[in-house]
Amino acid sequence: MSKSTTRVVSALKRAGGFASAQEVHQLMVRQGDRIGLTTIYRALQNLLDENVVDLLRRDGGEAIYRLCGEEHHHHLRCKRCGKTVEISDRAIEKWAREVAGEYGFRDVGHTAEFFGTCSEC
Amino acid sequence: MSKSTTRVVSALKRAGGFASAQEVHQLMVRQGDRIGLTTIYRALQNLLDENVVDLLRRDGGEAIYRLCGEEHHHHLRCKRCGKTVEISDRAIEKWAREVAGEYGFRDVGHTAEFFGTCSEC
DNA sequence: ATTGTTGCAAACCATTTGCATACGT
DNA sequence: ACGTATGCAAATGGTTTGCAACAAT
Which has the closest alpha carbon to A66: A75, A76, A56? Predict the structure, then answer.
């Protein structure tokens, strides 16, 4: 694993959940880590090949990555003011496993986003 | 619903399962239906807005569409072979409302995708 | 010296948009 | 005549690739 690939892993750790290649890049550059976008894409490709990260897609089709086995949370965002809170995903995780099991699926993961109107709006 | 939108629906019926915009276009043109790719994209966008079609993504990120029922549901997709089943969303809907309520949110909606490994893979 | 790593710029490809033409009422 | 629908060509945006400079063994 090359040096920059290691740096990408640690950036993903810092990001905490899902992040796109471009977001990883911004995060690293903002923290003074000089690296090219191309290198990030190549590092993420390697990490995929080695099953170190999972690849998912956002609604627009953009690829997002996260370290395998990492716990994650979801966001509940207000459509009006943009206020966002993190919510635990224990319940949905359990539910997903149950439902998936009914269809014979294993190793079940998910992406989810919640949005509504907050109390102040 | 415009005339070309109707033609796109019938092409999707003919396609039978999932098809990308480009595939729908080829299918129509091959069968003598003169239509531009742009119009297909616009028709599919309308059909999405009216919940007539489902949008999913192939591994490369390419959008694929299929006709669907009107009920709100989610997809459980195999990471290896791409097999996809629709799952009811009653449970997650209820759960989302409960959790959101704890934070004072109203009118809660969500997006969710589930993925895993199916029994044959 | 050889091999692998990096990053800029250009290429790629699915999708979207600007705009001028053609259609429906 | 008016608003809408259409499609070509150009723009967009995420991702990949060609290539030359660079580092490591």
Answer: A56
Least confident of A17-21, A107-111, B89-93: B89-93
Q: What is the mean pLDDT of residues B59-87?
A: 78
For residue B99, list chain A residues with Cβ-Cβ distance below 8 A. 76, 87, 91, 114
Return phi, psi of residue A92, to 5°: -70, -35
CATH superfamily of B74-116: Ferric-uptake regulator, C-terminal dimerisarion domain (3.30.1490.190)
CB-defined contacts A:B, below 8 A: 103
Residue A43's pLDDT is: 97
pTM of whole model > 0.90?
no
Please state which CATH class domain A3-67 belongs to.
Answer: mainly alpha
Nearest to A113 by CA among B7, B102, B100, B118: B100
Q: Which of A100, A114, A118 is facing B116, going by the closest CB pair?
A: A100
